Amino acid sequence: MSIRADIASKPVTHFAPSDWHTNNHLLATNAERLRDGSHANREDSKHLRNETYNKTEWGTHDNTTRLSNRIDDIEKWRETLEKTLADTDAEINKLEIDKDLAERALEAKALPLDVASECLTLRDGRRQIDVVDDQASAQLQKEVDVIEGIKDALQAKVSQAFEQLCLLQEARQQLAADLRDKTEAKGIDTYCKELSINSPDICLQPNPTRTPKGSVTPQTWEDHSRYNKDRAEAEMRSSQRLREAIHSTINQTDNDLEAQRQATEFALRKRIHEMERAKDEDEWQKQNTEEEIAKQEQNIRDLEKAIKDKENPLKLAMTRLENRTYRPNVELCRDNAQYGLVGEVNEVQDSIKALQKKLQDAHNNRDALEKQLHRINQDLELKKNSLDLDNKCMATRQKLTNGPVSATTKNLASFKTDRELYTSKQALLM
User: Fold this and answer.
1) CA nearest 265: which of 112, 108, 425, 421?
2) pLDDT tens digits, residue range 254-312?
3) Whose CA is closest to 308, among 362, 351, 245?
């Protein structure tokens, strides 16, 4: 078969010239339309790139500014919280010092209480009539009551200080926790602020726009810090008032205790003065009574001698009378001599009876004086015992003062007591 025959036999589609021209026109038109669309797309893309670039740049700039502003806000609150925390620490330190001061003041009341109790115990050694509910005992008991009241007041302040310290510590912990959180948040925001598109550690994150669990509003964030600050300041104000109350209580209790100490010691000095006067009175009465007993014993001896001296005159008169009874007969006459001798016997017997009666009275008086002397001696021993106990009380109370009581001070106090007693007596006599 020939080549020509093969070509003629292929089924080829033939187009008209108009179709060819139309096809060329369509190709040119489509190409132009596509180029126009591509050009518009390029222009739109360029505009969009510029717009998105600007938005992204401004967005990054704005958020960097927001982060900077946020860091400033955090820093302001950090400074506020740091100052409040420092003030709280200073107040805690001051309150601890004042609490220790109150505790030492409380411990210091052990000595006055021991001294007052010891004085009461010493005065319990008084005996019999000297066991008097006198002013000294009343003041000593009052001193014990005052000290117990002071201890209760100081213990209350110590307890309040402990409770206030707990509240301050709690407020401090909240401040410190808030400050730590803000320091950490500032570090994170500072790190975020310093990041840039050229930072090596930036990367895409899964779901970065999620709302983290526990997130709060800016108002809640500010209210939380303000609450911590306000609470700490409120606790500090309460602590300051408590410290003022502690100092006031310590000063007032010291004044009360000192006033009661002076009142107690004045009552004791007055009682010692009264006891010394009573002892001196007993010694004076003892001396006079002993002198009177001695005189009465001498009187008894004189009366016994006088009675004995009457025996011989009585014997003489009786013998004469008896002998004259032997006169004979009418010579037994009741003459003047007889009457005289009878009178003499009666007179001597009456004298002896009178002397014996007086002797019995003298014995009775001497016995009464000796009994009284015994009572005086007993009372004198009681007075010496009581005086010794009260002097021991005054010696014991020397522990309450910085130094021993001078003799001048004691003499002045005694002089004042004597003057008051003298004035009182003069008022009664007028």
Assistant:
1) 112
2) 999 889 888 988 988 888 898 889 889 888 988 998 899 899 899 889 988 988 988 88
3) 351
